[in-house]
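User: Structure tokens for this complex, please. No commentary.
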Amino acid sequence: MTTLIEQLVDIAPDSPLGRAIKTRADVLRLSEAAHDAVLVPRDPGGLSHGLRAALAARMCRHVGNDALVKHYESYLAHSAELDVAALAEVDGASGDARQDAMARHADLLTQNPRNATRNDIAALKAAGVSEADIVRLAELAAFVSYQLRVVAGLKLLRDVAVP
Amino acid sequence: MSEPVHRFTAKIPTWSPYVTPVELATATAEQLAAMKVTPSNKGISPYVLTLAHDPESLEVRSPLFNLIMYGRDGLPSAERELGAVGASIVNRCVYCTAVHASRFLGLTKREDVIDKIFADEREARLEPRLQALFDFSAKLSTTPIEATRDDAKRLGEAGLSALEQLDLVLSASIFGWANRLMHTLGEPVA
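Assistant:
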């Protein structure tokens, strides 16, 4: 079974990089499991599956990965949660204070995590985001940043590989 | 009285969370399993107790992290640590930088390399192989992602095999994840 990352990068299996990926098959398999754990967890807490998909699409827009935007938008459409759909756009807001605070925090974690401080967590709490949801949101944003980099890095290696 | 640490250091600080960690006494069975709590393993760090708020993610991320950083063959351990440092410098995760700079030092004794990175950060000038590794991991960590085909080409020119190059992508990327937890959910204090 091919994982999402492999589908997005499309590397010839018999190339040196393809063989390297086969050697690290467990990493790809666990990366896929991590995707499911942050996108469609059994216990989503205060971040519904639709909200997670919308925020993931938003993060991928920030980094400019159209294929991943499309991927997460298909999850969003599947969730049929119309109220969070606007959050998938980079400047989108839902009008719900808690969700909009989470979207702003997702922007910070995606674009400029080095600037995050204690005050950003205080702002989430003030907007009514629970402590468990603060951790869930961080895991979601952190995973998407990981995935975007694995995909970008593999594409670069693929493009310069000597056959 | 401990104070937040804002400067890069190889002396590992204490990590202090901004959110209340899960308490072992009241943790659910799923949280205990994700934290790998067993009768012989009850010394769980505040970081892991904080991440236990999301046990489904923690359960997967821990083995993924260990495979990427400590898996067999491929990129030497010290160079995976350098990839971790490159990402952590960009994301300014002082705690992650301290842990992984100290592991790099333990494996290589190359204090000159870490001194240069702490002094000059992304401008640090290193020997060719380490430079190619460090620059690629740093440029893969920025937003937007700055790494280019030329940066990738330099990895091959520096002698990295396909598996070593893949391991570098993975070790830098997993710190895109780890830094966003460690640096944003708490702070290093000493």
